[in-house]
Amino acid sequence: MLSVLNNISSLQAESALNTTQMSLNNTLEQLSTGQRINSGADDPAGLAIANGLEANVTALTQSVQNATDGVGMLQVADGALSQITTLLNQAVTVATESANGTVSNSQRGALDNEFQSILSEINTIGANTTYNGQAVFGSGTLTIFMSDSSGAGTTSITVNMAAVSASSLTLSGDSLTTAATAQTALTAINTAIAAVAALRGNLGASSNQLQAATNVMNDQITNVQSAESGIMDANIGVTTANLSKFSILQQTGIAALQQSNQMQQGVLKLLQ
C-alpha cells in the first residue's frame, strides 16, 4: 500500500541499519581492544567472574613477591649465621691453643682477648644484621602472608627469628685465661656451633617451603590468567568474520534505505 503519511519500509530499513551499525561498532571495539567484554552490557555475568579472577591474580602476584622477600630475608640471616660459624671456628682454634700446657699465662691472656673480640663480633652481627631496614634477629617470628584474595586461599608461613648473641649461644661467661676454663669454653663453643647449624637448617627448611609455595602460586597465576583470558578475550577469527558480515549488512542496509525512500516518490507519479 502506498502512503504519504508513513514510509513503513523506510522506518524498518532505518531500524535494521541502526542495529547493524551498533553490532559493527561493537565488533570494531572488540578488534581494537582484543577483548570480547568491554563493558558490563557485553556480558554482565562474565565480567563479574573475570573481575574476580583478576583480583585472584593480583593477590597471588603480590604473594609471590611476599614469599620472595621472605626468602631474601632468610638468605641474609643465613649469611650472617655463616659468618658467626666462621668466628666460632676461630674460637675453637684459640681455645684449643689456650688449653695446651705449653702456653704461658700471658699468652693465654692474649688468646682470651682474641676470644672476647670474637664474642663481641658475634654480638655485633646478631644485633646489626638488617633487611629492609629492620633487624633480622630478635624479632621473635617472621610471618610471610600469602593469599589469592579469598579467605580459603590464605596461608602464612612463620619462621623463628630469635636473637643471636654470645649470651644466647651460652658463651658470654667463658674465658681462656686458664687451661681448665679454655677446655670448658671449647665444649661450649662446640655446642654453639651445633646450635648455629640447627638455626641455619631451620632457615633453610623455611626457605625451601617458601620456594615451593612460590612455584605453586606461579602455577595458579598461569591457570587463573588462562581462565580470565577465556572469558575476556575476543575470538579474533569469529570477530573478523563478524566484521565482514556487518560491513556488508551496513552497505546493503544503506542501499535498502535509499530504495525505500525512492519508493515514496512513486506517489507523486500518481498525482501527475
Question: In a nutshell, what does this entry contain?
Answer:
This protein is mainly alpha-helical and 272 residues long. The protein is built from 6 helices and 4 strands; from the N terminus they run αααββββααα.
Q: If you had to describe this structure to a student in words, what would you say it looks like?
A:
This protein is mostly helical and 272 residues long. The chain has 2 domains: 8-34 and 234-271; 66-227, f41 fragment of flagellin, N-terminal domain (Up-down Bundle), CATH 1.20.1330. It is 71% helix and 7% strand. It is built from 6 helices and 4 strands, in the order αααββββααα. The protein has helices spanning 8-33, 44-98, 105-128, 179-232, 236-264, 266-271, and strands spanning 130-131, 134-135, 140-147, 154-161. The protein has a two-stranded antiparallel ribbon with strand order 1-2. The chain has a two-stranded antiparallel ribbon with strand order 3-4. Strand 3 (140-147) and strand 4 (154-161) form a beta hairpin. Helix 2 packs antiparallel against helix 4 (179-232). The model has no long low-confidence stretch (mean pLDDT 86).
